Batch of 3 targets.
Target 1
Amino acid sequence: MLYRKMPSTGDDLSILGFGCMRLPQKEGRIDTEKAARQVRHAIDRGVNYLDTAWMYHGGESERFLAGALADGYRERVKLATKLPVCIVETRQDMDRFLNAQLQKLNTSRIDYYLAHGLNGDFWDRMQGLGLTEFLDHAKATGRIVNAGFSFHGLLPDFKRIVDAYPWQFCQIQYNFLDEQHQAGTEGLQYAAAKGLGVVVMQPLRGGTLGRPAPPPAIEAIWSESETPRTPAEWALRWVWNHPEVTVALSGMGEDAQVEENLAIASQAYPYSLTEAELALVGKAGRKYREIMKVGCTGCGYCEPCPMGVGIAASFDTYNHLHMFGNPAETKFLYVVRLCGVITGSRGYASQCERCGDCLVKCPQGLEIPDLLEKVAAELEGDWLPEKEVMVRRFFTGSPPAGCTT
């Protein structure tokens, strides 16, 4: 495992951080046995930065992590969690959430505490509620050690937030598709120049950039390299090639992902990619932007939808159609994922009634209702009821209520 120093604290942190938003699941809940084994294995192999949040896994991620970090593991790591600013209404709420998080995590302190998902509007509102006074008080009382923020917004707002408080660190979305998105490369360099450590989220763009079998057009690009690398290695090495990056978070739900990321994190030094390799990554980025239709990372913040739409699944299937082709296969996959045979209720894109509830929640700023309309136009049709009957019979032996052949 390679380590980089958090410039504002002097902590030596593993360049690979374990993100606890995409833990393995079983029957819709965290598979605690599998997830705890993965977390402890990663720590045994040198990972020492773990990131969670109040809202991850329906509020269960922090509680899970308390158990995973028992038996001496808590003392071996730096623990990060986040104040859920989107549901904070008063200054008193800030203390209430933090104290509850300390209890859920079974710890006396949060090593790295973030205001979660700031943008310009959230920052202005939280400032009015007394966020900086809260952070000062929380540090003075020893409940948090270092204060930071995660960000999903526009670059000018990112810079003014960086300048508004003596932060120790920040967390930004960054990968080779997002050089000019949100904080981007300019924000990364700006924060680093101000002495902040930078933690990167979404280095694999919600897993899209790390697919073991990438779209054929992308696979053709990677095959041009003299040095064979997996898609995940290309994406992670590109992030770690930037010396301003302190830690890159990865949500690892499978054992194979943990092992692959650990192996990459033992070799990914700054400036280790050649100019030819960087040009190849740039070429892959341009191709991804061409074939991907929705910039969804699958974070799930937009859900649950009041109309029951499976927003993330709809967008993932829609992107699959345009990245891999094969409309017949993709339409079948769409029905399997959204007819309710897996989730228990239908979640088709056409169920959207444009209520706008999702728009204020999406950290990517996607025009979700408009995009869902495009999904429905391409992946739904008169054939849908018949296909749903077929899928339901295949999985359960009986058609869904209300459907006839």
Target 2
Amino acid sequence: VETCPTNKMMQRLALFFTAPYQLELRQEPLPPLPDDGLLVQTVVSAISPGTEMLLYRGQMPADLMADATIAALGEGGYPQKYGYAALGRVIEVGKSVDKAWRDRLVFAFQPHQSHFVAKPDEVLPLPDRMQPETAVFLPNMETAVSFVMDAQPGIGEQVAVLGQGIVGLLTTSLLAQLPLASLLTLDGYPLRRDWSQKLGATASLDPATPDLADQIQAALPHASHHPGLDLAFELSGNPAALDMAIGLMGFNGRILIGSWYGRKRANLDLGGHFHRHQIQLISSQVSHLAPRWQGRWSKARRLAVAWEMLQTVQPQQLITQRFPLEQAQQAYELIDLRPETAVQVVFIYDR
């Protein structure tokens, strides 16, 4: 990558999704550094295996490909740069920017690319002594915080998390800090179930187990008083898991749906059990605050909690593979074809 202090004619390496299952690395010119801008050299960026794999597989609806709340993303369609978890170092500042920004580590909602230009209000400085590989989990930790806020778990409740991908594991790590009666998790991959229990799950079960319902019932300490779950988080990305969750709920149970299914349809049994048990389905999306929180909470306050939870959980331990950006095809193929071997995959950049 060519660099120069004034940013003139500077080239960056950027990853493009060009079609389903097709990626391309391109050298492209960086935009000029404005007087009020920062030039950032990326240190590490994290793959979001939920939304990014929908894009990689061609399963993301075109109208959802571009997140209107993240200005760095494109307008949707292919080719498309994507990614929203980049951690980098400020290597140059515009004329009107405080020189104290130089050499600072910052987080940004930016695609996978070697450099980017942003304004100071578009980046987040890292807390003191936080490592880049910890901070790169910020978007997923904020999502987990948002899920827990929206679900409002109560003391002594019987709770389950379906799906122990990275967001599921982070959600489990937060729930494990609460005085729940039990915290069960479900995932098909032994590696993720092992991590789930390390992060505090009471038990982690394989959803393909033939007697799963009996195992869950046996693991509920309040089953004699309340046979069934009080609360479930559907974070697997698999529509069939939502139908499973409905069948596991006790009276007036809540199911928070954090999965984005893309073009996959959910076939649900909304018959007698669903209605007689008055089961509640809760949608949740991190790009905004639910109305109940407005007034006391802001996105800045929620983000502050996410930073604190990163310090507490130290999620960099969940990184299973590190790839240079030049090996992006291998990284996405691994997540697509061998997901049982991966928890969090990151790109590392020359620095």
Target 3
Amino acid sequence: MWPKVSIIWLNYNSSKIMPLVLESLKSILSLDYPLDKIELIVVDNCSNDDSFERIKEFLEKRNGLKKKIIRLNKNLGFTGGNNIGFKVRDKESKYVLLLNNDAIIFQNGLKSLVEYAEINSNVACLQGVVLKYGTRLIDTAGNLLDEFLHSHFIGAGHEYPWVLRKPIYVTYVDGSSALYRVKSLMKCLGDKLFIDEFFGYSEDSALGLMMWNYGYKSVAIPEPVAAHARNLTFRSKTALTVYLSKRNRIALALNTNTRYKDVVLIYELNYMLRHIAASTLKMLPKSYVWAEARSIIDGIKLARKLRSKGIFIDIYKAPVIRVPIRYIETFFAARRVATKYFDGWDVRVLNSLTVE
């Protein structure tokens, strides 16, 4: 008998990508999984375009699938919106599946994930290979963090199947299309998925680390389960995306035992100083520099707030990429120099991550 699954699907001002959004919803309706074992939870983050109305109209014409459609009166971000969806899930659901509104789940995608989770009860977080939308290129086959709390997408840019043969352990599964075991989530953060204060960015990596701390494994299987058109919600780099990504990484780093937590702060200060110089030459908007400065201050404040809530993470309980001390100086050089350290790292470490 197939277990119940709640699919949480978040929307925010998606009218410009509506054909893709509707394709995402159609992919859920076409799943090779008993429809009476699925509920779709749509959470709209206070959209101010007409996307919510169009999505609601589309779903109201589709029968056979249990649906909950929620419109928030405030934008709570990726974290808050998904947390609302998690709270209203069917209490009989054994799993929740997160699916971005710019992601398409393949017909056998949910079945492949659930089958693996049912056989491997020690796995709490699971993803398959996510392809770049419209291609055979890999978007992510699982995510790893390094000791600087930078994320690395396994196989990104390589053509599937690349070298993927067996399931592998990962630091965290990608929030674009990921399956979570409800019982394990409840023991981690209670009746929520993510840390509310993060709003967006680093929330899935923080969850993955916390799950490993509770003894729950995160695994990526080598089967393609979805396609993703990444970064369509935040279409380009803005002051807000700079602020959120840096603030949350700083807060996360300071609330872990990484041996480079002080280096993370110095690294961001160094980058801010570089960008001050760039902005004076009008090579970079001043708003970016202000966002970086604010992210450092607020990242430290957020770290203290999380610590007061009892959140502290041992990153070494999870698979992370170790960075030898002798390479630290490269991370303060040009980004292309720092990147060279990781050239080929994913091929080298896959064997050590393989699930036996």
